[in-house]
Design a protein that fits this description.
302 residues, alpha/beta, Rossmann fold, 7-stranded parallel sheet, globular
Length: 302
């Protein structure tokens, strides 16, 4: 297929891009700067500029770009950037796609399990109601922005990502240095649930959803075995052969991160991949300890 992708240079996008090309697909990337390669297409989601000609011959659209959630404390400007980079860019693409005489057959659009909000130990799947809070509001608007494409008859899949684990980036990379120094531990009381997935399984699930024509709507990209934050810290310490007994108290997390702490590291979201499993997908690494060992000590490494 000819595939048009945004966010192709990010951690997840790079993995998806690699698998798509390995499978024989022709991948074109949306970029905000000057195109440096033949298969790059310039767009400007802030200014609302996207050339409809970029959709010529495109059979699948993949939209992954968005302002990073983590980083600086959430100022009003940061929250606006988080929301606008997701909702406005999706609305821009959707507006053009919905009017196209030959639109893509399928659109895989990123979302997140932040949709559910912080829900303690309540088991959650795609049939669960939306939660409350800033991230939940953003995810609801983000997914709603794809509705015109769905009404146009395009198969839209909203990828609700959990915490994607890879030593090359994201949350796991940030944890490795302190944990290797013996400075790791649970965050807050450690009872909050973490719903995670390896980058490999996320990429394989993406390819599965691209070709599974009877699946549309929200799909949770998480492993079938969510763990508490305390369990995660203990298992990571075990795999690294380091103690994991230095907690980050909730007050310290809030002092350092502000509002962001309660919606990210202290939030509890116990999510299951019901629709993914019902569609026949099989996880390579459903178990956290096995997953961490495979990523951190791959076969053939020194």
């Amino acid at each position: 297929m000819k595939v048009l992708m945004s966010g192709a240079s990010g951690l997840i996008g790079t993995a998806f891009h690699r698998l798509l090309e390995a499978d024989g697909n022709e991948v074109h990337s949306l970029v905000r700067g000057e195109p440096l390669a033949a298969r790059q297409v310039r767009w400007d989601p802030v200014a609302g500029r996207f050339d409809p000609a970029a959709l010529d011959g495109v059979e699948a659209l993949v939209h992954l770009s968005g302002e990073p959630i983590m980083g600086l404390r959430w100022s009003a400007a940061k929250k606006k950037a988080i929301r606008d980079s997701r909702v406005q860019s999706t609305s821009l693409l959707c507006g053009v796609v919905a009017k196209s005489p030959n639109p893509p057959k399928v659109w895989l659009c990123a979302s997140a399990i932040g949709y559910y909000g912080s829900r303690g130990d309540e088991p959650l799947d795609e049939t669960s109601r939306a939660g409350a809070g800033f991230l939940s509001d953003v995810c609801q608007e983000w997914e709603a922005a794809t509705d015109p494409a769905r009404k146009r008859g395009i198969r839209v899949v909203n990828l609700r990502f959990g915490v994607v684990l890879s030593p090359q980036g994201g949350a796991l990379k940030a944890m490795l240095t302190p944990f290797r120094m013996g400075l790791g531990g649970a965050q807050g009381d450690g009872r909050q649930y973490m719903s995670w997935i390896t980058l490999r399984d996320a990429a394989e699930a993406f390819m599965h959803l691209l070709s599974t024509e009877n699946v549309e709507g929200p799909v949770n990209l998480v492993s079938p075995t969510p763990v508490t934050n305390r369990e995660f810290a203990s298992i990571l310490g075990k795999v690294l052969r380091r103690p994991a007994v230095l907690p980050l108290p909730a007050f310290a997390a809030r002092l350092a991160m502000g509002e962001m702490a309660d919606e990210t590291v202290l939030a509890s979201t116990r999510v299951y991949p019901k629709r993914l499993q019902e569609s026949g997908f099989e996880f390579a690494h459903p178990d956290l300890e096995m997953a961490l060992r495979a990523m951190l000590y791959p076969v053939g490494s020194d």
